[in-house]
Amino acid sequence: MDASRNATLNVVESLIDLEGGLGYNILMGHVDQLLESLRLIALTAWSTPPGGSAKTAGQKRQVGRSSGGGMTPSRKVGTRCLAIMEQLAGGVGDSGRGLMLADALMPLLQQSASSRKPRNGTVNEATSVRTLAVLSAVWQQVSAASAAPHPTDAPAASPLHRYLLLLSPLVGSLTTPEARQGLTAAFAALSGLLPGLATSSRLLTALNRQSESTIGEIDYDSSLAAYTQLQKGLWMQLKKSEGLPLMCQCFWDLCNPSDLALRHAAAQALTRLLEAAAEQQKQGNADGEGEEGEGGALHLVQRWMFNLVKKGITAANLAVRQEHVGLLRGLLVQFPDQYADMAHLLDQDPELDFFNNVAHLQLHRRQRALHRLTRVLRESDEHKSGRLSLSALLDVVAPLLHQFILEGKAAEDSGHEIKQIDKDREANVTDAAIEALGALVAQLPWVQYEQLLNQWLKVMKKTATKAVVRAVCAIIDAFHFDVSTQCPAQAEVAADQGKEAEALQGEHDAVEAPASCQAEAESAHKEIQSALKRRVLPSLRAQLVHDGEVVRAPVALAMVKLLKLLPEEAMVQQLPQALQGVAHLLRNRLQRIRDDARNVLVAMMAEIGVKYLFYAIQTLHNACPAKGYTAHVLGYTLHSILNVLAQGAAPGALDGYLDSILPVMEADLFGDIAEAKEADAFAAKYREAKKCKAYDMYQLLARMVTFRANIGQLLGSVRTHLPEASQPRVYNKLSSLLQHASRGILANPTAQPQDLMVFVHGVLEGGLAQQEAAQEAAEAEATAAVRGSGQDSLAEPEQVAQHDYMLVDFALGLLHASLKKGTLGGLSPAALALLDPMLPLLIRALRSRHANSVSLALKCLAFLIRMPLPGLAGECGNAGRAVTGLLQRMSKTGDPIAQDCFKLLATLMRESETYQPSNAQLRFLLTWAFSDMEEAAGRQAAFGLLKAVLQRKLVVPEVYDIMTRVQEMMVRSQSSPVRQLCSSVLLQFLLDYPVGDKRLQQHLHFIITNLSYQHETGREAAIDMLKTIINKFPEELVNAWCEVFFLPLVQRLTGDPSSQCREAVGACLRALMLRAAPEPLDRLVQYCLIWLGGGDARLARTAAQAVGILAQLEGMKFGRRIGSVLPLVAACLHKGVRSMQQEEAGAGEGDEAVLQGWQEVYACLLLLERLATGLPTQVAWQKGPEVQQVWRDVLALLAYPHVWVRKAAGRLLGLLLSSSKLGAGLLSAEGTRPGQLALAVYCQLEADVDDTLAAQAVKCLIHLSKDMLEADKAAGLWEPAHQGLAASEKHALSDAHLAHENLADTDQDAVPALRQGQNGAQAADSEAESDGEEEHDRQQLGLAGAPGLTLQGLVRRMAKMAGDRTFHRQLHRTWALKFIAALTTRLGQEGIVPYLHQILQPLYRIQESGSAPNSDETKQLAEEIIAHIRDVAGADALVSAFTAAKKAVSAVRNERKRRAAVQVLVDPEAAARNKLHKQERRAAGRKRKMEDMQRRRGAGVAVKNKKKQKSA
Question: Which residues pair with 210 in a beta bridge?
Fold first, then answer.
């Protein structure tokens, strides 16, 4: 067919090409039939997808063999038809033929509108351009009367209105400038036939007009002027067909991610459309279904806007998504009845509103919005009320969550640059989205649930990322269809029956479900099971193993969750196959593959629980034979499975599996497998062989089995190998097994106190009896040997008895751990009754030959002595004698058993009054325990015994000698615990023990003398001890020693080189001043005042700090001293100001001389700060000239060379500005005007600052901004908001013109070197814009060299600082940006609008796509500031000022480029020098950046140096 069509078209084209128009005239005679044929061919060709109809390859071959060719015309034929219709368009004079030609061309445009992204990825808009040109030519020849509809038809029945509705969607789909220009031309031609379309056509043309000066850009003036006209009134006047193209244009600009001005203007226009629609709804004049009447805005919103918004809320660009979500919120607010189901997500608090936060720049607010969505979905599911409709869930919520999950942590096309520290937080947003997805699908019916699950399964098949797999798992977890219960009809009948029974008060009517309901239930049951088995489960199984080696754990987890949804029979049938599919990878020799398979297997068993452990053990035995390395893999994997199952299993869950688990454990310890583990060459190859998991498995079994029933079987493994304990290797293994068993038993909830004590008592009784019998046998054997009679070797039962002490140690360890953890019931009568029989056994254990048994018995006795046991009084003497006997056999005090003996004796002295050691025993104990003070200090047991002696006040001479050595150890020791221990013992001695006045004086003088000890640790210990004495001693004694304590403390307050010691001295002085009586305290203050005015700088700063401490403590009571303190402070500050001024005038000795007195000035500033905080009325500005002079000196110190002084002065200025009591009248005084203070603070900020100083300076500037605004208003330097909005562009262009003049007047050779790190364009812009700033401010003030700033000058300087990209001034830049945000809030809408054109220029430079790279933090901060400005100033003001800023920056850059090009021609030598200088600056900047990165890496700071990839 294509051959015949091509031949026919050749004939037509030949006729058209005939000379003289003969062929053309022939065709005009048959133009109706020709156009109809061409229309049909074009319609068929362009309505078919590229490549022909959707047939299989076999069908196409069959059709080709049967018919010899395709029946459908190709696109090439359609294109030829289009070319013929273009040539015929110029000769169509009849309106009917013109409309027929338009009908033929419309399918081409419909195809462009319906498929914005065909298979080749781009739209063939060249065809659209040609088609639109033909339509424009045709509509210009058609008369409006001939195209009008019949009078009886509705206006919408007109073909012109139909064309209009078909063309309108193209406004939002065509992308190239040529196509959009052709579309506006078509609308202009159509407006000639539809007069009502003239306004829309004019605005549409203005919105798409191209710039005449810049290629490829639109005319911003025309576009923004057109958006300005789209007000509420215009939207209300437009009909629905007239407003539709404008609305599509707004959405087209709204989807522009790179142009902030157009995006905001479009959003504002659509917001006005919403307002107009809401107004029309109130008036009640909505359109009919097909009428072209009033209410067009309402029709556009209700029929079109929601669909367009749905497409944009899932945009990959975050900025575009924000605008669409904002429009969706506007829809909900303006039309609450139509979208009542989504009103639950709104909130009056912006922090809680879902739509305000779900697309927010800050990640934590997005996470909060998703959490709130999850909560709303779950609450509505629980309460069965307030549910979101299916349309809202599937059209709004599900796409949003889909976008969040697919973005994950690597959203490459986000609307802003994600900060490096926020990339991990992005994972939290993904987690919240997955959680919300699970809550969403829990509300879906089966059909929608299946569709959504299939959709995610397709996504997983394409990109099986972790987030996608987790989303599939979340959907499967939310499976809420009970396939085994009654059908929906039965459920409704049962509910109706319940309501009817309640209404009839107990009368029941038997209502039976229809007979078909059971069949329906069975059918639904089979359908769901079939879907899970045939579609979902195979899809998951196909994704389980990737490339035959990698196992996906989330997929396996989802598959197991799916099996849990199926009946038990299906679970038993499918589970072994699923486990075997993973377990067979455990035989792989690659460690990575085995680890992945093991992790997946563990996750699967954790999901299905201990109920199916038998299948796992059987699968492991089949997959891992008990030979070679697989035997080690078997035990290792079994431990991993048991470990995860024990976390959620109930106690006793593993009782039935001991026979299967214990053989694996014993083989891992004592068989051939254990010998292989000990071979280093073999163990190095396999991780499973490096560490034996049998011990952990044994501990796990001891924790999980039933204690009373299975403890014997569990310990059978140990008893079996006790005869072999003589071998060191076996002994170590058995000992480790018993230790792990002890830990497991202590954590076993079935090990009740009674059962545990019965077990411990039995083991101790039997073990000690066997040890005593063995000892008697040994003595008898020794006697027999002496007599000459020999014995045979030990039999096996005797060998077992020989090693029963291991079980005794095991029982004692259990008892000690139980007492330590308090698991035996505390001091209840039942617990005491259980523990009382243990006392004789423990005392017997002290006579054991095994050190471990003795040590554990001592520790247990130390616990039992603290308890009110009935038999304790009778056993204390025996315990004391046994312990004394042990100590007499010890060779040194450092022995662990000796330390345990000291602890037990100390406990006996503290807890038991019946224990009374003799003086000889006490003196022996103290002398022997403290024979080596260094060793005794390192072990606290001896000090515990000493504390017990001090507590009982047992007076012996050795105590006084020991305390003298203790206080020396307190100062000399380099160990902090030892110093603290000595301090506590010394304090207890001084407070409780009998001490005379002379000895007390000796101890206090020792402490005071060591306040100046050479080592910091010793000084700190002495200071802390003195502070404790001041707090603990009686008040009379403190007052008597007050001055003795005060003088050395004040000396160390400034003389100590350690900051920690100085801080401790300050705390000690506070304690002394709090305890001192009024008279001694007044004497101390007099000393400080004498020092403060004495002229000695060191004493002055010491006194200032001491007085500051007292002022902080006394608060308002310090007011009686202010008259004597403030003049001295004023003199000190004035001295510092005078020295600074002399240095500036050149009469001083330089910065070094000024800096020598900074400490005195700084101390006085701190004192003044405490006075201003505690006594604001005493040092207020209005207090008098003396106080005002003090504050003037403080303001002068803002320029002091030392940064600490500047910080203190800045804090005082902040207090002065923020407190109405303190700073009233400050800004109206001469010399402290707002502009003058702002200049001083700005100079402080411009210098080298840290984060604290910069923050304080910005706070002061924000405080002053309001007063500066009032001053500018009074001086006539401020324009109102309505004038400022229109004048933004004028000011911006004025600034640009000033920059042009500065560039023109500047000699390129004399331009100073720009700041390092800036690129050439931005550096030149900043240099040009900064010239003449001071002169401009002076002209505005009307004074030559006026010492102050206007608000406009301050804003200009801060904007310049915000645009400074110098590497070492990034801190200044950050705080300048924060100043802009705070200033916007401070001034409000009316005050900030006149300055928008200045503050938006650095923000535009940061945001523009082609600018030099900025940090991620800076970009996000700039975006947040722009959003804040939009909220405060309004979208109109922001768009206008942003456009003006863009023009100003572009004008400066264009002029700079032009002059650079002229310089290359006029003075090439100077141009070459500038180029070399620029390269040197860049190289120096790179070198400095690398050096800084190296320093930071050397300091341990993580620094990433990744180059950003530029998008193609």
Answer: 218
Residue type, 1249: V
Q: What is the pLDDT of residue 1386?
A: 92
The continuous run of DSSP H or E covering 546 comes out as strand 545-546
* pLDDT, tens digit (0-9, with 9 covering 90-100), for 1260-1280: 999 999 988 888 888 777 766
The sign of the CA dihedral 1427, 1433, 1434, 1435 is negative
> Which amino acid appears at position 981 of this protein?
L
DSSP string computed for 1002-1055: HHHHHHHHGGG-SSHHHHHHHHHHHHHHHHHS-HHHHHHTHHHHHHHHHHHHHH
User: What's the CA gap between 1096 and 1106, in Å, rounded?
Assistant: 15
Residue 1 per-residue DSSP state: -
Q: In the structure, how many helices (H) and strands (E) does the chain have?
A: 77, 2
What's the whole-model pTM score?
A: 0.69
The backbone torsions φ and ψ at residue 211, rounded to the nearest 5 degrees and listed phi first, read -70, 140
Query: Which band of pLDDT confidence, cut at 50, 70 and 90, is reported for residue 424?
Result: low
Residue 1332 DSSP label = T
Say if residue 399 is exposed, middle or buried (CB neighbours under 10 Å; 0-12, 13-18, 19+): middle
% of the chain exceeding 70 in pLDDT = 81
- Please give the Cα distance from 496 to 300 (Å, whole number): 43
Nearest-angstrom CA–CA distance, 456 and 458? 5
Quick one: tokens of 1375? Answer: 């705080």
Select the more confidently predicted residue: 680 or 1158: 1158
CB atoms within 10 A of CB 1468: 10
Q: What is the pLDDT of residue 765?
A: 87
Percent of the chain scoring above 90 in pLDDT: 8
Please identify which residue in the block is written with the tokens 């014995």.
791
Six-digit token string for 188: 């202009």
DSSP element (H, E) containing 71? none
pLDDT digit string, tens, across residues 61-78: 343 333 334 445 666 777
If you average pLDDT over residues 1342-1364, what whole number do you get? 77
Per the DSSP assignment, residues forming a β-bridge with 550 are: 546
Comparing CA positions, the residue from 242, 240, 248, 209 lying closest to residue 226 is: 209
From residue 202, how far is each of 187, 190, 628, 934, 1034 by CA, in Å?
9, 12, 85, 97, 94
In tens, the pLDDT along 152-190 reads 444 555 778 888 888 888 888 888 888 888 889 888 888
Task: Give the Cα separation of 1035 and 1023 in Å (integer).
Answer: 19
Q: What is the DSSP letter of 918?
A: -
Chain centroid, CA 447 distance in Å: 37
Q: Does residue 858 contact residue 883 with C-beta atoms inside 8 Å?
A: yes
Report the candidate in 362, 439, 368, 430 with the shortest Cα–Cα distance to residue 397: 439
- Helices 423-441 & 398-407, crossing angle to 10 degrees? 150
Confidence class for position 123, pLDDT limits 50, 70, 90:
very low
> Residue 1508 has what DSSP assignment?
P
The two beta strands, 545-546 and 550-551, are: antiparallel
Does residue 1378 surpass a pLDDT of 90?
Answer: yes
Q: Please report how the helices 1435-1466 and 1396-1407 are oriented relative to each other, as an axis angle in degrees rounded to 10.
A: 70
| C-alpha span between 1334 and 1344 (Å, rounded) | 10
User: Residue 470 in contact with residue 434, Cβ under 8 Å?
Assistant: yes
Annotate 469-517 with DSSP letters as a single string.
HHHHHHHHHT----TTS--HHHHHHHHHHHHHHHHTTS-----PPPHHH
1028 contacts 1064 by C-beta, under 8 angstroms: no
- Distance (Å, whole) CA 1419 – CA 1405: 10
- DSSP letters spanning 1432-1451: HH-HHHHHHHHHHHHHHHHH
